[in-house]
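User: I'm writing a short methods note and want a consistent example. For DNA 3'-5' helicase, I'll paste the sequence; you return only the structure tokens, no commentary, since I'll be parsing the reply automatically.
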Amino acid sequence: MNQNKQMAEKIISGLNDEQKFAVLHFDSPLRIIASAGSGKTKVITRKILYLINIENVDPSSILAITFTNRAANEMAQRIKSKSYSNSNGLITSTFHSLCAMILRQDIDKIGRKRDFHIVDKKDVKAIINNIQQKLGINNDDLNYKDVIEFIHIAKIKELDLAEYIKDKNNNPDAKLKVKILKLYKEELVKANSLDFHDLLLFTKKLFQENDQIREKWSKKYKYLLVDEFQDTNDVQYYIVKVLSQNAHITIVGDPDQTIYSWRGASVDLMINFDQDFTNCKTIKLSQNYRSTKKIVEAANNLISYNKNRLDKKLYTENVEGEDIEYFRAYDTEAEAKWVVNKINELKKKKNQLKSIAIFYRSNYYSRTFEEELVRANINHKIYGGERFFERKEVKDVLAFLRVLYDKNFLSLDRVINIPTRGIGSVSKAKLFEYAEKFKKSNNEEVKVIDVIKERINHIDFPIKGDKRKQLFKFVKNILKYSKLLKEGKICKTLDEFLEQINYYKYIEDQSSLRGAPINNVNELISSIKAWENENKDKSVREYLEHVALMTSTTDEETTKNYISLMTIHSAKGLQFDNVFIVGMTNDVFPAAKARSKDYFSDEAQKMEEERRLAYVAITRAKKRLFLSDCRGYNYQSETSKTPSYFLKEMGVNIHSSIPKTLSDELEPVEEELSLDDERDLYEGDIVSHSKYGEGIIKEVVGDTVIIDFGFEEGEKQILKNHSSFKLLRRREEI
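Assistant:
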């Protein structure tokens, strides 16, 4: 007995009071709200160890579910290495592995064979490619990634496909996606195969349609623990409810870190858990062991603005730490330079590169930071993604530019069917073979484009009918804009060319449901404009050389000491001593899409998810947190850039980085200043601006005012005596 007591004390040693309660509670369903850095993994493993070693629970009656194979394996290894008793039979599993096990035993009860094959990503791609070939379409007609993401969302959210098409106003691409999805499902049935979504959906179907099987599995386990519960979707939650009917259930997660709604996760499932489990006990793990007090304070300040959440507040006994640094740069290039300067300062203080990470909201924002790190010869790696200049749509647009510049054959080969002109691989091969024969007979130096121009109306030309008309139009535009490019205006010429060939419409249609491709194209166009402004005497050739230098740089594989660049979604579950969150600009972070309602969620839900994403980013930082955004003009949205709302919500003084020379950095709203004496203006005063309309003064900073013109225009910083606005009424008159 004494030995058992010693063992119990050893299992709970080193835990705080909240963690101990979570480990020892078995009287009712338990919801553990585990804040960032609060040691939740330790709590789960200790709880299982306590069950096996102290309560003498048969390990085979315990089921622990998490969201990745790595996490499941690590949990199993920890328990095995620290258990005093035999832990054989314990199941630590992902949802997908668990469902595969269930279906191997019982899928025949709903008319499918138990020896089904689970298709992987390569299998899925092969099936989709075969379907596209049968339908006479290719990846240029409908982007593969877009199709895959639609299949994912349609399945996991169990979309009503007819309603989806209706919501998309009978858009042809929407109809085509639905058709591909139906054919895809048919192909899986023919091949006796299930994809990863089917593992969940067929388990739900099995439980719904067969009472006997549902009862069997509801009695299988006595203890059920689910980690990362905030990432659970409706289908997974249904499965959890079935499996927990006769089991003690413990769920662990943080609703404030729900950032995967686009793949089905719902913050409401954890928030409303006590409605389905009415005698549920909730314990909050609030102590953060990761970050400094100042970082924790910023995280608390920010997330408190969300309404749909469980009230909780992080605290830490760690050191106060250094101030959070914020910088507002003149443009994105200056922002990247500031980040690199700070990195060099960290290096001088003996910080290793692997202790540093740069986070951004979306992949397209990485470009300037990649370029600046290359210039500074700082080793870095894109975590979980491609470098900016390696992304398909970026390479496509640069290929168009090379075609306009020198009629480059390899570039023409890449884009001749973008947007689709019906010139697939077979037609293209015939065309290029024809061009080569003509060159050999006439002039080896002539370009393929010129051959097409010269021969397109000849009877022996291999492309016929509507395809020939489309090709003729494309070549005509190439020749026209090639001449215009020689005038030296790279961005203007390329932009007009892309508009003329309907590329922008094409890439918008091709963009995934999260819109990454169009954002990457917009960023490239903006970067070309910026490059031209900085290099007024340089040519197209020099710009292409500049890009080539960027793309030729490879990751250093001989060392693991590199800075990590990643989206915030990729950063989930990671931690770094030093974190830079860049692009803290409205319409970048929070993303512009957060202001719109769509088929899946409304504006308020999207904005709260954006705020949760920022919370996740902040809480990855252990020692230092750096925030940055930039001034300037967004050439694509045609709006001035304003600091992210999240900065003020964090408690950051957004005026702390205003330069000494205001004229160098203030937004140039107007050039002419009023000669009137400086006006007395106060926070809360209502003003009217000649361009932006009515606004409210949010803050007075020296001889400037910060005016909020609402969601459409955002906040502007303007000199107090500027002639562009006038006072409408005082705050006391409101």
